[in-house]
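lol so apparently i was supposed to do this last week
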Amino acid sequence: MEAILSRHSVRDFKPGEISMDTLKKLVHAGMSAPSAMHSAPGHFVVVTEREKLDGVAKIHPYANMSLQASAGILVCGEPGKEILKEFFDQNCAAIAENILIAVSDLGLGAVWVGLYPNKSHIENFRNYFQLPAHIVPFTWIPIGHLKSPAKPDNRLDSSRVHYNVW
Ligand SMILES: Cc1cc2nc3c(=O)[nH]c(=O)nc-3n(C[C@H](O)[C@H](O)[C@H](O)COP(=O)(O)O)c2cc1C
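anyway here it is w/ flavin mononucleotide bound
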């Protein structure tokens, strides 16, 4: 609960390395997401090279935080692996959210940069990361160190909760 309640989008990072061990944990969290009929469509591009991170700011209008991020994970899906095709985006979103919660739990910061289903973003990321044609980029997650500690936020709105019937 603490990781979920203190998760918020972080777009301004403090410099500092993020170890490959930590990045592998984040990918592990992503791969542990639920998926319809356990199709597990996720693929991950883990990015640590400064030049590659910086270049993302040039291919997406709302990804300038990549310039400050220490690392990034491109969450991709493989539609051909889906048993129920219509759940592609839900499966990929569950992966992205798992990563964001794990980032929060590890005391780091990140933000979900939406690509899918925008065709031009998809093409730009596919070209930039040299993805094969059967792989669809879904979300770009720049990751970095927090400038100040995250505080839990209470967004509970009881007026929107309905019990048994609306
Ligand atoms: C589908 C989706 C797309 C998003 N795209 C962007 C984006 O391109 N750039 C960005 O800075 N934030 C993006 N966000 C983050 C939202 O702006 C953020 O989650 C929202 O304002 C709520 O703030 P919080 O994450 O701090 O709770 C996206 C979030 C989602 C779920």
